[in-house]
Design brief:
Distance between the termini: 14 Å
CATH architecture: Orthogonal Bundle
CATH class: Mainly Alpha
Helix content: 40-55%
Strand content: under 5%
Structural class: mainly alpha
Radius of gyration: 12 Å
CATH topology: Non-ribosomal Peptide Synthetase Peptidyl Carrier Protein, Chain A
Order of helices and strands: HHHH
Shape: globular
Length: about 80
């Protein structure tokens, strides 16, 4: 797990975007303003993203957390805030 002091919004964004690409989403479709619903993220992707975030930053994300978020940037902001 990375040190919390090193956690920045840019680091979180990089990890989240890399995960989304691994899920099969085109890198060109991913931006911080991209709507999650438009990226066709399914429940398995949510579970996997939650695991990645927990392993990388020690942050727990639930499906409930994610259902209230609409953009990639909102996910990044939540993870960065909880990791701080």
């Amino acid at each position: 797990m990375k040190q919390i002091e090193e956690t920045t919004r840019e680091t979180v964004a990089s990890v989240v975007i890399e995960a989304l690409v691994r899920f099969g989403i085109e890198a060109s479709d991913i931006s911080l303003d991209a709507q999650l619903k438009d990226l066709d993220i399914d429940s398995l992707d949510v579970v996997e993203l939650s695991q990645i975030v927990r392993e990388e930053f020690g942050v727990e994300l639930s499906a409930e957390d994610l259902k209230d978020l609409s953009t990639v940037g909102e996910v990044v902001d939540m993870v960065a805030a909880r990791a701080a």
